[in-house]
Amino acid sequence: MIMTLRWYGTGYDTVTLKQIRQIPGVRGVISTLYGTKPGEVWEREEIKALKDEIEAAGLSLSGIESVNVHDAIKTGVPERDGYIANYIETLRRLGEADVHTVCYNFMPVFDWTRTELARKRADGSTVLAYTQAAVDALDPEKMFASIAGDTNGSVMPGWEPDRMARVKELFAMYSDVDEEKLFSNLVYFLKAIMPVCNEFDIKMAIHPDDPAWSVFGLPRIVTSLDKIKRFLDAVDDPHNGITFCSGSYGTNPDNDLPDMIRALKGRIHFAHVRNLKFNSRDDFEEAAHLSSDGSFDMYEIVRALYETGFDGPIRPDHGRTIWGEVAMPGYGLYDRALGAAYINGLWEAIEKSETRK
Ligand SMILES: [Mn+2]
Q1: Euclidean distance between CA atoms 287 and 290, whole angstroms
Q2: Confidence (pTM)
Q3: Would residue 331 show up in a list of annotated catalytic residues for this protein?
């Protein structure tokens, strides 16, 4: 595995490359051209500038999170072919720049859903949290306004204000898109992009839906092992793979995370590792990465990645906000650095105990 941290870019992130370089074992960052809009072709100069800046700091650009997929592709309207052509061109340019891992998602309207961005835990830290009752009581158009006060001035990826201003319109676009239609639109997209992925060895890593069930009646197709297998089989190419995000699949306690990792051997191209604490089945909050702080067995998750020969980029996922840091919720430096150190420690222990046998 290659330990990485997500980095939003100069001007967007409160964390600097210099700081990331000082986290032991972190070799790369996962980034994106944050200023681009879904559907645009990425400029070669901008890709190069991002890469050069990261490399000048002694790190690698280990992957892109995300190249966002335009709503026309997700909804399958006739304009999708033009947007797919643009997506292919962006992938080509990333491939030419020696980028080989691309994360994306196929979630309608909302990239991810939380009901609180700063729930206080017993230790005084604040975390993102989700309560089903709050979602059920909420008008989706007001979702953004209800959490916007807690973003510490950051623009939350997937919750950009200009996008949220169009929520009503977005819901209308998806009104006749059910799970089957969304699935066939995903397959159509994947079949179209596989040739360029093969040409440049670009591993596509779809991010799961978060949470792993339908919210606001919107369809969700990346939520469980059965559903993942269905689209991996539909486009059976090793470049069609997944991001294994423990904190997203883990929102559904029926998902056996280590078992999923083993079943998906060879198709996991990127790993997000984080822990959740369940207060009830319908209420969870993000925890420190340490197993005992949450509900997941992080040792078993990392062990399953090790045993399946996972060699892609891995990153600690959302961290708690601690030590007075002011940062984008989930994306401060301190707790993610602790998470990286912890995952590195688990990995070293597993590797050494395995090779000593
Ligand atoms: Mn994730």
Answers
A1: 8
A2: 0.94
A3: yes
Active site residue 176: no
Query: Is 269 an active-site residue?
Result: no
Of these residues, 318, 334, 335, 342, which one is catalytic?
A: 318
Residue 49, Cβ density class (10 Å: 0-12 exposed, 13-18 middle, ≥19 buried) = middle
Domain hosting 115: range is: 2-356
Active site residue 245: yes
Catalytic residue among 210, 245, 269, 342: 245
Percent of the chain residues topping a pLDDT of 70: 94
pLDDT of 222 > 70? The answer is yes
Please state the domain count of the chain. Answer: 1
Cis peptide bond upstream of 184, omega within 30 = no
Whether residue 207 lies in the annotated active site = yes
Q: What is the pLDDT of residues 260-293, one digit of tens each?
A: 999 999 999 999 999 999 999 999 999 999 999 9
